[in-house]
Amino acid sequence: MKQNSLIIFFLFGLIFFTKTCFGQDSLVSKSFLNNKVRLLVPNTFNELSQETLAEKYPNPNLRPSIILTDKEEISSIKIIQMPQEVSDTEVARYKSFHITNMKKEKYLDWLGDGVKIINGRTIGFIKVIYTDRNTFSYFFFTSMDGKLLLITYNCLDKLGPALEETTEKIINSLRIE
Question: Which residues, other chains included, contact 164 with Cβ-Cβ below 8 Å and sequence gap of 6+?
Answer without folding.
Answer: none
